[in-house]
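Quick check before the chapter quiz. The format below is the same one you will see on the exam, so make sure you can read both the input and the output lines.
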Amino acid sequence: MYNDCPSFVKDFLAYMETIKGRSPTTVKAYYTDLKTFFRFILKHKHLCDEKMEFEQISIEQVTIEIVQTITLSDIYEFLLYTSSNRANQSNTRARKVSCLRVFFRYLTNNRALLKENPVENLESPSIKKTLPKYLSLEDCFELLNHIDGPYQERDYCIIVLFLNCGMRLSELVGINLNDIHKDTLLIRGKGNKERIVYLNDACLSSIERYLTVRNHQIAKIKPQAKEALFISKTGSRLSKRRIEELLEEYLKKAGLSGRGYSVHKLRHTAATIMYQHGGVDIRVLQEILGHTNLGTTQIYTHVSNEQMKQAMQHTPLSRIKQKDTQIK
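Here is the expected output.
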């Protein structure tokens, strides 16, 4: 894999996955961003055929000597290109900046291939903060009430776990049978970091119902999927894409399609409901969601208009009135 990269890029990607413990998805994102960056550099510095299509430019020709010529101005030009030519939004450009920071720090500090780090003073693009999109409590009930079909026990269990535990799609797909112990679930998050979440009655009940059905299908389960909790109709571990498709189908049945809801929005929903309705402390919520930084969790501390209204109505001074006086 990554055979179309120069050796120092391949070494960086391997380092991020094996030493730093980044997930394969994160490493692949680094690979994609670096490939785009070096294609731009080759074109920007006139080191490739000018007539060649951007996506056809090979980055194998990038040498460490070329990297040593890269300046902060070149990187600003790259970010301008991603904005004007590729229509990258600020959050995408911020991700690319993060990738370049890690990459050039690796070349400078870990490998000593650069004397100076050209991105040391590079600022990240400002990201417009938006409130996370989530389902209301009524929407959640409506969604659950429309789960049916031959795999309804499995699909109901999946949605219940999403809405109650706030896990990521990759985390749910990776659940094995032995990760469930009494009322706890072991979740493997980003960078293979493990965390324990407690299962409430709804989760335990839906798991129990689904396992009864799963046990009846044990003969159809493929050997490599024997430990997987969620199984497809072909006997394999249920894929991420199939779960996305299932959610799309049930959202449509519930009349909730076309609103921008997705599997990740179920994670937002779980977090929002726990914070707004469950009274969960922000640091406890951080642990449940598996966030490294508290700042990531604080996006869920937004409050609804109704909550603000209630807060104003329940302040001790809300009923105070001025005494009537005789106006002379």
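If your answer matched, good. The first strand starts at residue 180 and ends at 181.
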